[in-house]
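Re: the multi-chain job from yesterday

Posting the exact lines I submitted so nobody has to dig through the queue logs.
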Amino acid sequence: MNQSNINIGEEIYKWASDLFPMCRSITGQGVRETLTYLKNILPELAIFEVESGTKAFDWEVPDEWNIREAYILDPDGKKIIDFRNNNLHIVNYSVPTDVSLSLEELDKHLYSISERPNAIPYVTSYYERNWGFCLTHKQRQSLQPGIYRAVVDSTLAPGFLTYGELVLPGRDKTEVLLSTYICHPSLANNEISGPVVTAALSKWLISLSERKHTYRIVFVPETIGSIIYISRHLKHLKESVIAGFNVTCVGDDMAYTYLASRHGSTLADRVARHVLGHLDPGYVSHPFLKRGSDERQYCAPGVDLPVVSIMRTRYGDYPEYHTSDDNLDFISPEGLGGGFNALRCCIEVLELNEILVNTVLCEPQLGRRDLISNIGYGPGKADIDRRVLSHLLAYCDGSKDLVELCEIINLPLWDISKAIDILKEEGLIEATTVNRSKMT
Amino acid sequence: MNQSNINIGEEIYKWASDLFPMCRSITGQGVRETLTYLKNILPELAIFEVESGTKAFDWEVPDEWNIREAYILDPDGKKIIDFRNNNLHIVNYSVPTDVSLSLEELDKHLYSISERPNAIPYVTSYYERNWGFCLTHKQRQSLQPGIYRAVVDSTLAPGFLTYGELVLPGRDKTEVLLSTYICHPSLANNEISGPVVTAALSKWLISLSERKHTYRIVFVPETIGSIIYISRHLKHLKESVIAGFNVTCVGDDMAYTYLASRHGSTLADRVARHVLGHLDPGYVSHPFLKRGSDERQYCAPGVDLPVVSIMRTRYGDYPEYHTSDDNLDFISPEGLGGGFNALRCCIEVLELNEILVNTVLCEPQLGRRDLISNIGYGPGKADIDRRVLSHLLAYCDGSKDLVELCEIINLPLWDISKAIDILKEEGLIEATTVNRSKMT
Amino acid sequence: MNQSNINIGEEIYKWASDLFPMCRSITGQGVRETLTYLKNILPELAIFEVESGTKAFDWEVPDEWNIREAYILDPDGKKIIDFRNNNLHIVNYSVPTDVSLSLEELDKHLYSISERPNAIPYVTSYYERNWGFCLTHKQRQSLQPGIYRAVVDSTLAPGFLTYGELVLPGRDKTEVLLSTYICHPSLANNEISGPVVTAALSKWLISLSERKHTYRIVFVPETIGSIIYISRHLKHLKESVIAGFNVTCVGDDMAYTYLASRHGSTLADRVARHVLGHLDPGYVSHPFLKRGSDERQYCAPGVDLPVVSIMRTRYGDYPEYHTSDDNLDFISPEGLGGGFNALRCCIEVLELNEILVNTVLCEPQLGRRDLISNIGYGPGKADIDRRVLSHLLAYCDGSKDLVELCEIINLPLWDISKAIDILKEEGLIEATTVNRSKMT
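And the result, structure tokens for all chains:
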């Protein structure tokens, strides 16, 4: 990784550290605080509030949940579990409670993982009114019989679901969708890495002097949020989105992962495989069968958007997933910088991608233009490998886009863009009217 | 294999034992006796007689052959070969003969296999008037010079070709064809296993409270019989048959074999591969190049029916094939029960197969319907793995049938039918108008 | 290889030996001498002259180059490099020169290969006025400081580009293109093997009593010559050529090589793979990415002719390539005979190839026609394996040509042509109207 990505990685890590402690859920103040922080980075970010009870396809926005305090006192009155220490201690969406109860009764409300005895699990109960506490298995086993007191100072009442949207217009109406989620409390890779890397991508996109595509970037609570968003924009999304990326688990520094769209061969799939194939030939490739995040909605039958996931380590493929061990130590500036870089490369490829066609029949005379050496086999003035020029001229036939062409010649698109520019300047290749069926 | 298949296997073996001794040929009393026995099991079986000389495509029904006695007396007048001991001793369709002749002359009419010296081969001469005897190579080598007498008390004269047909109507006009042959004398795997397993399948189909498809089940002499049958029903078969199975060699207990249709990717092929892939992942897969039975006619150019073979050990792939060693010891209740089970599973898959489509956009809320647990990741009331429900909802897009869907999710169709029923009851998926082009 | 190919190989080698010493270039007397020699073998050969300055697509015919003498005198006046010894010594297209210069200055005009110190390299400077000498690296290193004299007695002036064309009409208007080049000086495999094998193929084609296809055979200077030729005949070539072969590097006796067309699945590709797959299962297969000869023009976008290369060892895949080691010792009668044979087989396959269809439904009765034995499994009167007859009847369905059919049944087309003839005679199969889309 180059120095620029490391610097970016460090900035992204700083944002992650700030956002990590907030207690997010699918609704409530934690989400608003998160979006407010992101709006400081991205002033153009628009924040939307959707009323509880609003319907979206098979779903309904639930009551808004907020929490102030939650703890358990042991038989001696000692506070043995406290939400203030770790917001994973409370089952997300726990209803207000203040009860004294035996250990046996309390145990029905406790969650731990025997295989990972020092980690606090992450548990939710969004759609069934319930309460519970999560704790390490070690602590759970140490609890002595007696009367405990469990206090949950929360509210669960009509309110709003909150999400953010940033639309960066481009030259064309074709859109690229970036979607990330903001609904998990203090989890690092499988939550906060997504919004911070997406924020960095947004900042970089804003800084570009020109964009070919329009970028639609959404920060939504997982599942219910993407469903709400799709329900509000389905027609437009289906008409405009040529590629999309669900951004999650982009903070650790292990191998890269590609998770296919449902169709498996959309432009987003081809771009993701092209980019990861060159950045990390040993990347992990998963079919849509292994889905687990908002691609479930974006790729659902009838929605059918060309959305893939590019991750570092996929949710579920690391044992720290959905536990207190998925914390700021699990992610790193290098990991975040790498995640940023992979997605930026995908966007660059989408910006560069087009269908080119030769303007002359047979090979043009490159020597006359000093594009290749006139004696022997050396390069010409532009110092470009003659095979690259020849491959471009041989395969630019108006029937395939540059991603396909690059797969044939086995070079990353970013490595041949200079050669493309020169051949365009020389008038030897030109873009054809974009064939949408080929581009998507 | 479960107990029910073993019990069925034993019943099937009993039928095989009864039918084994009859001297079948492509015409004659042996065929009629066989069909009469099967009609006892399947009273609905219709028996048809087709007159000698009747034309069918490039063929003509030959004269009917019947045989009472056939033997050879050695120079001492001792009966050394007797049709009564084994009906393979006589070349099938031998003309009436009573001659005395030298060993040298006799030898031109003898057939044996040097590589398998204790086995009597099976030889026919349907379309050229001839006579001959088959014997073990060992016996042939022991024959001493001298004058022998060869007697064949047969008739070969205008008569009929006989076949059986059973049509079990279903809810739809789509038809499934089962075809088996009844023309070999005492051969067990490569003859009698076919009609008895087919009879068991017929009995089971009759017992079903409802059938989606119509089942057309034919018991015909091989080659000439299927050609006659096709010539009489070609238009109807081409319009109606969505899948067919040639039933032969289903009695031994070695690995399963799939022999593809000519096209190789019909519904019958997909179902056979789906079923055998789950019943016996090590099953043998043969292209149509390895054909050898009535699929040659059903899949001929211009006939083009979607017919495959599911076998235990394929004709020609076992050394006992077409010899007296392919006898009742070569097949077993377990083998027959397994052959029955594989074909029954194919039929069950065909009955369950349909094209389903989601009724809601995005994932439906399964928790609200108690189809998954509302807290944690456990199953809901119906105790169905949430991944199975999710996979069904993700892939039921109206573009693929359940066999294709099951290949994607790598589960046998019979294992997900409960989940399908529940999602249908909940109104979350529904059948679409059958797209015949997809179904065939 | 059979005796006939060895005899042909010896004749071809004789021609190669005669043509080898001539100093060819892309224009000039060397090309004319070469074509005159070939016209002695092929009196029908038409020779065309194209004036310098004639435009063709992005190119222009350059001035004509001729050379009489070229040498270098060392400081002692000794002739140390002499074009008369080896015409590779002079950089092709060197302008007239007579200068005295220091070793340092001379060195800028010298070309050698350090990795191959005893070989003289082959260098050209067609499109930039320059001069130079090629020598062994060993000799170059032995040169002592002092004043050298370099003399090039050449002319570079308006004239003509010369090429040859032979059109052998066939029954149909479908054309097969053979293209080879005549522009390298004394190089054996990567030059002279091409025209001599092509001449032998032409002679053989002329000798045939009947040809189905028309054969268009061109002897052109590489690149500029094929571009000129295409520019003059593009419309006709696109309408008529069903398959083409660029003939080069067909003289050594190592493995065969196939270099795909740009599309990779044209009739020429299928035929080449079919032939080499049976002649030499270990043949080397290269994608179009590895192109390097006139297929670059014939397969260029917009030209898109179905042209492949069949070679022995591909240019660039042997270290002697483009050096004085690619000489008459590098090629052999066996190598040339093998190259001839591979291409002749391709032509035979193209002549035999057609789409056949059954005339009867179901299998025909072969026994009645004595095409198979009526008793047992032996062959009939024509002694043809019954599986071959059966395969032909099973797969001749009017949807695939014989090359595809042969790939399915894994037999070379030339091995089943007798069976095809017999089935045609019996009226059991017949050609269908050629479906051009299938044939190309």
